[in-house]
Write a structure and sequence with these properties.
Layout: H1 3-10, E1 28-31, E2 34-41, E3 43-44, E4 47-48, H2 59-80, E5 88-99, H3 107-122, E6 129-135, E7 144-152
Parallel strand pairs: 5-6
Antiparallel strand pairs: 1-2, 2-7, 3-4, 5-7
Helix pairs in contact: 2-3
């Protein structure tokens, strides 16, 4: 078992199966040493985590949804690397999209759920640049979507 898998298990987390695309795109593209992973919406065992932050969901629940997005990102990275975590050098950038009601301004707190998970699992290699963006709506009514860029060896 890799260090990454051990850290995930230590946190009581398992990676989901990589999600299939919902439309006309691919889950990831490698360009040189960079792996661009398409946006991953928050889905758990009961389906899509739906909601609008500041309306029917608070920042803490949104951060948990962002953490789920991060797990889906890591599942895509694992698939892109053929299961070989040694190929992952670091997280370069995450962009989080948060379904937000008017007047909700805590998008950074929500996306912290994904950012903090990357550091917990990957250590310093999980530290990254980031954007947190409020949007009116996301696919399938998801509360949060996160995309990422990763550096591969």
């Amino acid at each position: 078992m890799s260090d990454i898998e051990a850290r995930l298990r230590g946190l009581g987390l398992d990676l989901p199966e990589p999600a299939a695309p919902l439309a006309a795109y691919v889950p990831f593209v490698r360009a040189g040493d960079l792996l661009h992973v398409s946006g991953q919406i928050a889905r758990d065992g009961s389906g899509v985590i739906r909601g609008t932050l500041g309306q029917d969901m608070d920042a803490e629940a949104g951060a948990r949804a962002a953490q789920v997005c991060a797990l889906h990102l890591l599942a895509q990275v694992r698939a892109a690397c053929g299961g070989d975590w040694e190929r992952l050098a670091r997280v370069v950038k995450l962009t989080g999209f948060v379904a937000s009601a008017p007047g909700f301004f805590d998008q950074p707190k929500v996306v912290n759920g994904a950012s903090e998970l990357m550091v917990e699992v990957l250590g310093d290699a999980g530290r990254h640049a980031r954007s947190a963006v409020g949007v009116t709506a996301l696919p399938l009514g998801a509360a949060v979507e996160v995309e990422g860029v990763f550096l591969l060896r």
